[in-house]
Amino acid sequence: MKELNDNMAKKKIAAKSTELDAKEFFAAISDIEKEKGIPKSYMLEKITQALVAAYKKDHEGITDNVVVDANEELGSVRMFVKKDVVEAVDNPHTEISLEDAHKALPRAQLGDVLRIEIKPKNFGRIAAQTARQVIIQGMREAERGMIFNEFSSKEHEILTGTVTRVDERNGSVAIRLTSGSEFTDAFLSAGEQVKDEVIREGDRVRVYVVEVRQANRGPQVLISRTHPGLVKRLFELEVPEIYDGTVQVMSIAREAGSRTKLAVWSDDENVDPIGACVGPRGQRVNAVVEELRGEKVDIIKWSEDPGQYVAAALAPADVISVTELEEGKSCRVVVPDDQLSLAIGKEGQNARLAARLTGYKIDIRPASDPEPPEEEDPKPPKGAKYVCKVCGYVAGAEKPAGGVCPVCAESQFVNINEAVESGEEDIKIEE
Fold first, then answer.
1. What percent of the chain has pLDDT over 70?
2. Which of 123, 251, 363, 394 has an alpha carbon 20 to 30 Å from 198's alpha carbon atom?
3. Looking at domain 18-144, does it have CATH number 3.40.50.10800?
4. The CATH number of domain 303-372 is 3.30.300.20
5. Which CATH number fits domain 153-226: 3.10.580.10, 2.60.120.260, 2.60.40.3080, 2.40.50.140?
6. pTM
7. Distance of CA 303 to CAs 6, 311, 334, Å?
8. Helix and strand totals (H; E) in the chain
9. Neighbours of 311 (CB within 10 A)
């Protein structure tokens, strides 16, 4: 008798082990919510989908008539298959005979839909594996979604990361970025690194988040150390007036590692925008320069007046005059002779940055030669003859001095070849 009782006890324990413990189930997803930050409702949805998918895989012919009822308040997780009560069963997966229905529910009638509970212990090994895979995939998707949401909110911001790996082959750098409770790995390509800047494994570096994309393997964070936005955000961190909007950054032109020009403006007459950026004893701008590893920063005052704006943009060079030209956004700038090389800058850098900053094409001239040479008429092709359209005088291969006909004193010369092409064959020609 004792042996029989022991065997029965073992069977009960074995049966219990194959069944889903609801308390442990809800405790597990609560732990996942605390550790991973994944909402419990999301996990419940994924797990119920996994259970249904697992059952369908082990039972061919099952359609959408399988439902899972997970009730945390009652501490129960139950699965049901819905079957229509019919006289003759054509599909045993979706239908049940009236006779069999009466065994489960004596009051069942034809046309009723019966919910028949399925015990988890009926799941096979493949079903269990399927459920596990779906749950894991659901957790991964949730984590990726949370990472994407966290880092997409950091677009156009500065993040600090730790260098985890430096690829000597292509120069790219792997950086572990952290934001809130989330972290991800991003790659700083060689093209987004400052020239001659040395980055070593273990270094903590600040990077500018250019864009966050959804990729097959999870969120992809595009970062840069050369983007002009990095300079703007660094000044926001160091200058309270920029952070609160009292001083506005109107434009930035940057050649990373070498020089940056920053145009600032304030509508508050009591605030000096340049002084606010420089800070007491240059502390604010020096902090930015230090982060940029010695990159020079020119801070100029933005102006609605193109002349003033362009003149300021060419600092540190002095400007005598600025003249706007008719062809598009372009201007001619006259500087003292001894300031010409300073205005242009080494390899044209100062003029180039000023043009980017203002959006103007800038022609820089010395005071000794403020006007560019007049464009001469192109020399006619060899053997060409010019003829006066008024009197027919043939001038030869070139026009007379000043383009004035010595015979009739008119200035209406035309190339004979061009006259023929334009249909002016009737021009009078006096040899």
1. 80
2. 251
3. no
4. yes
5. 2.40.50.140
6. 0.61
7. 94, 10, 19
8. 13, 18
9. 23
**pLDDT of residue 8 exceeding 60:** no
Quick check: 299 pLDDT over 90?
yes
Cα 298 to Cα 208, 256, 260, 268, 308: the distances in Å are 21, 13, 6, 22, 16
Residue 236 predicted with pLDDT over 70? yes
Neighbours of 6 (CB within 10 A): 10
Let me know: does 133 contact 122? Beta carbons within 8 Å: no
Beta bridge partner(s), residue 177: 161, 184
Q: Give Cα 390 distance to the centre of its chain.
A: 66
What is the rounded CA–CA span in Å between residue 175 and residue 185? Answer: 6
CA 348 distance to own-chain centroid: 31
What mean pLDDT comes out for the span 201-222? 87
Q: Where exactly are the structural domains of the chain? A: 18-144, 153-226, 303-372, 386-421
Confidence (pLDDT) at 52: 79
Contact 65, 83 (CB under 8 A): yes
**Residue 207, exposed/middle/buried by CB under 10 A (0-12, 13-18, 19+)?**
buried
